[in-house]
Amino acid sequence: MSLVLPMTLLSPAKLNLFLHINGRLPNGYHELQSLFHFLDYGDTMTFSESDQHLFTCDNPELETEDNLIIKARNALVEINSLRDKPQHLQPIHIHLNKVLPMGGGVGGGSSNAATTLLALNEIWQLQLSKPQLEEIGLKLGADVPIFVRGESSIAEGVGEHLTPYPVNEAWYVVLTPDAHVNTAMLFNSDSLPRDTAKIPLSEIDYQAVDPQFKNDFENIVIKGYPTVAKSLNWLLEYGPARMTGTGACVFAEFCSQDEANEIFRRLPVELAGFVAKGCNISPTHQTLFGQ
Ligand SMILES: C[C@@](CO)(OP(=O)(O)O)[C@H](O)COP(=O)(O)OP(=O)(O)OC[C@H]1O[C@@H](n2ccc(N)nc2=O)[C@H](O)[C@@H]1O
Ligand SMILES: Nc1ncnc2c1ncn2[C@@H]1O[C@H](COP(=O)(O)OP(=O)(O)O)[C@@H](O)[C@H]1O
């Protein structure tokens, strides 16, 4: 497929509709079961022709070499350079418009890395398969493969084993408390419940209102971060609400856009968030592959 540049893609947020910790492995990592779903809301990334590889961001603090966008681009440049007949790679300017809260459990950095891998693979015609891109992505972060896959899925193992699991595409009110939660610290916490029973895949029938689906990090985070507790308690007034990932963002599901907007309009000024629609196919894939 030949792409017209400049090209702008939405690099979406994800929600963990549930996140269960089933056990701890001898290497310290945790076995989990989690349902990942995409939102039609996120950062935007623009890819344009340039005379040198370039990465810019509306937030200059993110323009560093350890940005996952640069790491993803460099991984593809290296793979090409190791091929028998390396291709000439057109230098690309990648611009990121950062919208998603960082370290909020909505996966912005992982999403940006995956969007970079998917877009450059098409622009440079590298012909890397999705499984190959997922493998490259996994080295950048545990959640990159799910964004490369681009389908609502249940993650198992330590997060690497993905099974597509489409759900009803509802509307979400997502609140974004001003708190940066440390993922590694939470995984190491003595208070983390690690014994949620694994549900056989064939028996998972996800319903937002069903209390068997929960986030095992939620109780520790609300104890340690009052702003998260405040946002979650506000949402709980209107229906079942839950935290995503290791926090800090929390969400509640609604049947219609009108209902979600109506609740969001009541948000007190000291709380922040957004309204978005759930997507079984990532918006990046919808644009890039017409899915
Ligand atoms: C748990 C999730 C669910 O989406 O939380 P969020 O990051 O979205 O909040 C993610 O998979 C997180 O992914 P990510 O934040 O990339 O974590 P990583 O860098 O891979 O791991 C950070 C640390 O968490 C611990 N870790 C991570 C994954 C796992 N299955 N078991 C673990 O024990 C390890 O101590 C690891 O060093
Ligand atoms: N492109 C990027 N966007 C956001 N964060 C990034 C990016 N590249 C690297 N990071 C780093 O990754 C950390 C976690 O980012 P993020 O994916 O937004 O968190 P979470 O997985 O909790 O939603 C950030 O604090 C930042 O230091």
UniProtKB/TrEMBL annotation:
Binding site for ATP: 101-111
Active site: 14, 143
Domain of life: Bacteria
Keywords, sorted A to Z: ATP-binding, Isoprene biosynthesis, Kinase, Nucleotide-binding, Transferase
GO molecular function, one term: ATP binding
Catalytic activity: 4-CDP-2-C-methyl-D-erythritol + ATP = 4-CDP-2-C-methyl-D-erythritol 2-phosphate + ADP + H(+)
Pathway: Isoprenoid biosynthesis; isopentenyl diphosphate biosynthesis via DXP pathway; isopentenyl diphosphate from 1-deoxy-D-xylulose 5-phosphate: step 3/6
Pfam families: GHMP_kinases_C (PF08544), GHMP_kinases_N (PF00288)
Domain GHMP kinase C-terminal: 217-267
Record GO biological process: isopentenyl diphosphate biosynthetic process, methylerythritol 4-phosphate pathway; terpenoid biosynthetic process
UniProt cross-references to PANTHER family, sorted A to Z: 4-DIPHOSPHOCYTIDYL-2-C-METHYL-D-ERYTHRITOL KINASE, CHLOROPLASTIC
Family the UniProt entry places it in: Belongs to the GHMP kinase family. IspE subfamily.
UniProt name for this protein: 4-diphosphocytidyl-2-C-methyl-D-erythritol kinase
Gene name, Swiss-Prot/TrEMBL: ispE
